[in-house]
Design a protein that fits this description.
By secondary structure, the protein is α+β, with helices and mostly antiparallel strands. The chain folds into two domains: about 120 residues, Phosphorylase Kinase, domain 1; about 270 residues, Aminoglycoside 3'-phosphotransferase, Chain: A, domain 2, CATH 3.90.1200. It is about 45% helix and about 15% strand. It contains 13 helices and eleven strands. The relative contact order is 0.16. About 5% of the residues have low confidence. It binds 2-acetamido-2-deoxy-1-O-phosphono-alpha-D-glucopyranose and magnesium ion. Magnesium ion (MG) binds next to loops.
Length: about 400
């Protein structure tokens, strides 16, 4: 029996374990699908090994997850009758001894979650309807956790999305011998370094506003990128947001910016051809309408003032994080080839440039967020989504 199979069997699931398969994707944690069978049925769960190099206190992830899922499940239950759909959220699968996780004796920290069956996730936007649903799902998530006190949750990843802290780390990495070697070793790396310099003063825009008291911390998802949004395979409607490891107190802008830098880049973040990477304002507009349909009253006027900056900033920040990791020797994000993180950085910086070029249009769309009453649901084409892929966070 393999180590993963032994781990899978420690969770309280009916039936006999018949397979454990890796689920691709995910830049940080490792994800597997475990299938258990009985004479009459089958149960499938998502088994994940938390990356403890990134998440130094994995037990805190689980105590947060327990709080958030209990809270959201209760609310979903209460609100189910008036809803236009069945909203879903995975629950923690306990171990046979009633714990929320297991350690494998070799430093591995594992947890299991129920699989949201009949749902799909896409790595890039499929069109405005998809973007509308992604906005709806994020708005719904913000609404659902808005009455859970942020102070109850632990900070699972200190400094996460605090852009100036990434800049500081970047400066340290660049000054180290290995960083210098990589920086001077390619023309492209030097070009990206100039791109960062040109935007250095912009990096603190949200943190400055927070310090001035203009922006307040709330509970955020932390990683609302397009493939963490699940769509119901039968109806095409958003059904759930997964990957709750970074739910913690923070600025709502991190979520807004991260969701948009992801859904409004039709090429996706792994695109090889940079010419295909741009910020699509039609997708942005659809996302904003979707968000508005669920969380209209959620944003204050100060919040709205910084929405454009958040989109520009998070694409810049993610590019900076990839670039820093490239210079540091790929220690944080998993890579599939030499230069992978460098290329990911190029994609995000290209996107950031496109956001800057379309500033006026984007601001007009965001202003609509203030004035329009309700996001109109776009027409559906009625086509079922492609074959399901199991996703439960990465
Ligand atoms: C990481 O591992 P994954 O794919 O869920 C990262 C996010 C990035 C994302 C970019 C904890 O998320 O912040 O936006 O890659 N998560 C963490 O794909 O750093
Ligand atoms: Mg994640």
């Amino acid at each position: 029996m393999s180590r993963i199979e032994a781990v899978a069997q420690r969770f309280a699931v009916k039936g006999r374990l018949v397979a454990v398969q890796p689920v691709p994707g995910g830049n940080v944690n490792d994800t597997h699908l475990a299938v258990f069978r009985t004479t009459f049925s089958e149960e499938r769960i998502i088994l994940q090994r938390i990356n403890v190099r990134v998440f130094k206190r994995p037990a805190w992830i689980m105590s947060n997850l327990r709080l958030v899922t209990d809270h959201v499940h209760q609310r979903l239950h209460r609100e189910a009758k008036g809803e236009d759909r069945v909203w879903q959220l995975p629950r923690i699968v306990p171990t046979k001894s009633g714990k929320d996780w297991v350690s494998d004796g070799e430093g591995g920290f594992w947890r299991a979650l129920t699989l949201i069956a009949s749902a799909v996730a896409h790595d890039k936007a499929q069109g405005p309807e998809h973007a509308f649903e992604a906005g709806t799902v994020l708005g719904q998530f913000h609404r659902l956790v808005s009455d859970l006190a942020p102070g109850k949750l632990r900070d699972t990843l200190p400094g996460f999305h605090v852009t100036p802290s990434y800049l500081k780390r970047y400066d340290e990495t660049r000054a180290a011998a290995a960083g210098k070697r990589r920086l001077n070793g390619s023309v492209e790396a030097s070009r990206l370094a100039r791109f960062v310099e040109d935007r250095r003063s912009f990096a603190s825009v949200l943190e400055d506003a927070r310090e001035r008291g203009e922006l307040k911390e709330r509970l955020i998802h932390g990683d609302p990128k397009v493939n963490n949004v699940l769509l119901d395979e039968l109806t095409g409607k958003g059904t759930c947001i997964i990957d709750l490891d970074t739910v913690k107190p923070g600025l709502i802008h991190y979520d807004f910016g991260d969701a948009l830098r992801s859904i409004a880049n039709p090429a996706g973040e792994e695109e090889i051809d940079l010419a295909k990477v741009y910020f699509d304002t039609t997708l942005c507009e659809a996302f904003v309408r979707g968000y508005n349909s669920r969380a209209r009253d959620f944003l204050t006027s100060s919040d709205r003032k910084y929405l454009f900056d958040s989109i520009r900033l998070i694409s810049f920040e993610l590019g900076l994080r990839f670039f820093e990791d490239y210079l540091a020797g790929d220690r944080y994000f998993k890579v599939r080839s030499e230069g992978h993180n460098l290329h990911r950085a190029r994609v995000q910086f290209k996107l950031c440039e496109s956001i800057e070029a379309r500033e006026a249009d984007i601001r007009r769309i965001l202003d609509g967020l203030t004035s329009s009453a309700e996001g109109a649901v776009p027409k559906r084409n009625g086509r079922p989504a492609p074959a399901p892929r199991p996703r439960a966070g990465r």
